[in-house]
Amino acid sequence: MKSYLTIEGEYSHKIEVKHSVFICSIKGIDDFEEGMEFVKEISKKYSDATHNCYALKTIDNRQKFYDANEPGGTAGQPILQALNNNDLNNVAAVVTRYFGGVKLGAAGLKTAYSKSVLETLEKSRIVKKALCKEGIVVLEYSYLGDMLNFLNRNAQVIDTLYGQNAEIRFAGQLEDIDQIDTFVANLTSGKTQIKWINTNYYTIKPKGEIS
C-alpha cells in the first residue's frame, strides 16, 4: 500500500443514548500489536464498564473486532464499519459502554456504537501517510536556501544539521525520487548526490504546501 489515511494521535469522545454512556477512544497505530495494547490499556482504564467493545485494522490487512458480550454484530462490526466507511487504516477504536438501564435493541445498539465512533472521528485529525524513501544530502551553504525551499514544497524535512556543510535529512515519496535527484544535480551542477537510505511511511502534506 503506497498511501493510506489514519488518525494522528489519540482522541476520546463521550455520548449518551437513553441513559447509557458511550465513550469512544481512538488512536492511530503503527501495527496490529500496538492496537491490541491500546485495547488492553483502555479496557483496564474502564474496567468497571458494562462493555468494552473494539475494532482495529492495519495496512497489512489484519483486522479484529469484539462485541464484549453485546449481542453478536451490534458493537464490534459497527465500529469496524465506521472505520471502513472513512477509509482508515492503522487505527484502533474502543467504545466503552456504561449501561443506563434502558435496553436499546439490536438496531439501537448498532446506531449508538457507530455514532460514538463517527462523532469521535469528527473531532480527530485524519492524515495521509505515504511510503517514502529517506534521503540525506550534504551541500554547501550557498545552496541551502534553495534546497530547503524545494524540499519544503515537495518532501518532508526531518532534520537539518549545521557543520562545515549543511546536512539535510528528509523523506520523499517514491514517485518523486527522480525529480528530487534531478533538482539536486541541477542546483549543484552535479557536485552533490543524495544518499537514499530507509523506506518508511510518513505523514505527508499536500504538494506545494509549505510546512
Characterization of this structure:
- The protein has five helices and ten strands; from the N terminus they run βββαββαβαβαββαβ.
- The chain has 211 residues and is an alpha+beta fold.
- The protein has two domains: 3-124, 2-Layer Sandwich (Ribosomal Protein S5, domain 2), CATH 3.30.230; 129-204, 2-Layer Sandwich (Alpha-Beta Plaits), CATH 3.30.70.240.
- The strands form two sheets. Strands 1, 7, 8, 9 and 10 form a five-stranded antiparallel beta sheet that branches. It has a five-stranded antiparallel beta sheet with strand order 2-3-6-4-5, sandwiched between helices.
- β8 and β9 form a beta hairpin.
- The chain starts with a strand and ends in a 7-residue tail after the last strand.
Summarize the SSE layout with pairings.
Layout: E1 3-7, E2 10-17, E3 20-28, H1 32-45, E4 51-57, E5 63-66, H2 76-85, E6 91-98, H3 105-122, E7 126-139, H4 144-154, E8 156-162, E9 166-173, H5 177-187, E10 195-204
Antiparallel strand pairs: 1-7, 2-3, 3-6, 4-5, 4-6, 7-9, 7-10, 8-9
Helix pairs in contact: 2-3, 4-5
Query: How much strand content do the residues show?
Result: 35-45%
Q: Output the radius of gyration.
A: 22 Å
CATH topology of the largest domain: Ribosomal Protein S5, domain 2
Distance between the termini: 25 Å
Low confidence ranges: none
The CATH class of the largest domain, by name, is Alpha Beta
Number of helices: 5
Structure class: alpha+beta
How would you name the CATH homologous superfamily of the largest domain?
Answer: Impact, N-terminal domain
